[in-house]
Design brief:
Elements: H1 37-44, H2 49-66, E1 71-76, H3 81-94, E2 100-103, H4 105-116, E3 122-123, H5 134-139, E4 142-145, E5 148-151, H6 152-167, E6 173-174, H7 176-190, H8 199-206, E7 210-211, H9 219-231, E8 238-239, H10 241-254, E9 258-263, H11 266-273, H12 275-281, E10 289-296, H13 310-315, E11 319-328, H14 331-344, H15 356-361
Parallel strand pairs: 1-2, 1-9, 2-7, 6-8, 9-10, 10-11
Antiparallel strand pairs: 3-5, 4-5
Length: 365
């Protein structure tokens, strides 16, 4: 259990016997210590199928990093932090390998912020993947994410912490970028060493904006509801999705040359691709995203894959076709190789942070 102030928050129930499900903690992979990634990826470019696609994606990401005027936007969908990819993303932020993040709420709040409070995700025994024991898990307030566990009582503490943050905010509409800045400030004040590898906290310290365009679809959504209900007819803070879109589009307007590195699809993918079109509707001459990579296991033929490959997105005027690559692979396999390749090739060395978060501090948004 963390050293977070549990005197303020109480678990939903006293569920006994939890420890049997919390024996092995998910370990976040550290690409900075893996010196063999470059020769492995270089060898894959002489293979076929997804191996060759992955090698080309790694080349594109390296090229985007070396293209110094280019701003890199990372999108996150799927259960990535709970699966052990948190430190990969933290290291991207620390080494100026990403300039803005667009994510699902689950990754940022239910998983990253959750761990920054001192809680953890746990490895489940193989038998639990069958689904036959989900009733048993529910009795012990253990939530399952395929082959990992999360403690529901601890997650409720995360829910309530978001309300505590909202209660301290000035009553007005906020973009998710502003809200995550408040989350970062909360961790700065209350977090301690346990949040050293938090994406939210690292972005806060380095002026990397985080956007969650479906913000209420996570623990923060419960916090928003309980905050607004508690305030009744009194003024209260709220989330403004339109402000989100405008603020992310301002990055495209300020920095026309952009690269998108998309893990999964969904709302983060569409939201980020659409800033090209949004900038055009505001009368700006916005070029398509110059570089684009997507790692996914979805198939466009049945309407999945957020209903488009990168080539198809080009028909909408969103993605240029010169440097684009789909990688049909599960994220925990592909992402450490693509990012690790660029890191160990030194593509980030000498690259300066865009510090886009400061852009909003200097203007009324």
């Amino acid at each position: 259990m963390s050293d977070f102030n549990h005197k303020t928050f109480k678990a939903t129930a006293a569920h006994e016997g939890k420890d049997q499900y919390k024996k092995a903690v998910v370990q976040h992979i550290d690409i900075t210590r893996m010196n063999g990634i470059v020769p492995m990826v270089d060898a894959m470019r002489h293979m076929a199928f997804s191996a060759r696609d992955l090698a080309r994606a790694a080349d594109i990401y390296e090229r985007a990093l070396r293209d110094r005027p280019c701003a890199i936007i990372l999108t996150l969908a799927g259960s990535l932090i709970s699966a052990g990819l948190k430190k990969v993303i933290v290291d991207m932020v620390r080494n100026n390998m990403v300039d803005a993040i667009v994510s699902t709420g689950a990754n940022m709040v239910d998983q990253d912020f959750f761990e920054a409070l001192g809680f953890r995700h746990y490895i489940a025994e193989d038998k639990y993947k069958s689904g036959m024991f989900d009733g048993e898990l529910r009795e012990h307030a253990i939530d399952r994410i395929y082959d990992t566990f999360i403690d529901e009582d601890e997650l409720r503490i995360c829910d309530e912490t978001t309300k505590l943050i909202f209660d301290e905010l000035e009553p007005r509409p906020y973009s998710s970028r502003e809200i995550f800045q408040a989350f970062g400030a909360y961790l700065e004040k209350n977090g301690g060493p346990k949040c050293d590898d938090s994406i939210i906290y690292e972005c806060y310290k380095r002026d990397v904006p985080i956007f969650v365009p479906a913000f209420s679809d996570c623990s923060a959504g419960f916090g928003l509801v309980t905050h607004s209900v508690a305030r009744g007819d009194q003024p209260h803070m709220s989330w403004d999705g339109g402000k989100d879109f405008r603020e992310l589009t301002e990055i495209k307007i300020k920095n026309p040359e952009t690269a998108i590195f998309m893990i999964g699809g969904g709302v983060p993918k569409n939201f980020t691709q659409d800033i090209v079109v949004c900038a055009e509707t505001l009368g700006m001459d916005a070029p398509m995203h110059k570089y684009a990579i997507q790692v996914t296991v979805a198939d466009v033929r049945d309407g999945a894959l957020s209903s488009s490959t990168l080539k198809e997105a080009s028909s909408w005027g969103k993605v240029d076709l010169v440097f684009e690559q789909m990688v049909f692979s599960e994220a925990t396999l592909a992402v450490p190789l693509i990012v690790g390749y660029a890191y160990h090739k030194g593509a980030h060395q000498g690259r300066e942070s865009k510090k886009f978060a400061q852009m909003y501090d200097l203007a009324t948004v």
